[in-house]
Amino acid sequence: MTLPGLPPAKPIPLKERAALVFVERAQIDLVDGAFVAIDAEGVRTHIPIGGVACLMLEPGARISHRAVAVAAQTGTLVTWVGEAGVRLYSAGQPGGARSDRLLWQAQLALDPAARLRVVRKMYALRFGEAAPAKRSIDQLRGIEGQRVRHTYRLLAQRYGVTWKKRSYDPRDWDGADIANRCLSAATACLHGLSEAAVLAAGYAPAIGFLHTGKPRSFVYDIADLWKLETVVPEAFRVAGRVQKGKLDMPLERAVRQACRDSFRKTGLLGRIIPCIDEVLAAGDLPRPEPPAEALGPAFEEEQSGDDGHRG
Q1: Predicted confidence (pLDDT) per residue in 97-112, tens digit
Q2: Domain 99-281 belongs to what architecture?
């Protein structure tokens, strides 16, 4: 919040923030100027909202108008998710979407040759080697799927996890096996963080390249660049502990803590936005110059989060 006589607060750069905070069964409000979650017993838990990239609200969480306004001012993405974060119902963008970047992203996605170059770059970043020559996007998607499934099998063997295939029903969370529940909880964390980065950088979540037709296709594109490096190994590691009876907390909580530690250890927050620009630059189409009246992304300019918010 802005105090009288002081300049507006400047959002903390995304790379310097904590990744995610989950809140369930609590009322979120501003109390005595602090952003807090209040449980049924009236216990207050302070949330340093300006130092968080994404706030994920699970069932039983309620948030006040004042709290949402402060989250917007600080450039923090607020998402409303299902149990364990598996289903995402809605999201309030943290600001920064700009017409010049949206148009560039759309131009790349609509040009078949440029889109293929972007997808090939994603493949190279994800697997550390050039994509096979003379392959279509559908063929590359199939090759990626095979490599990911192979990685799942290897990780299952490493951690002693019973593994059949990637399969779960978002409407029946408890019906999935342990490994699939761990993977779903882990990818939900990565998707929330990736969407915060996509929006903060000024791009559109829906305009994807490898993934298409979904409201968060580009979020999935970007998340997949880091998935095998960060959250997937942690999901199988936790699943292995569950199967060996060595976990003393709910598996969803253990997965979140493991993902949090992985994000911190790999410095992921500082890498996502530069990587988005690198991926799109591979399309080899000129980046449009922003118009003189354009508002800069909230996390890159010397201004408040509201200035970068798409109103």
Answers
A1: 567 888 999 999 999 9
A2: Up-down Bundle (1.20)
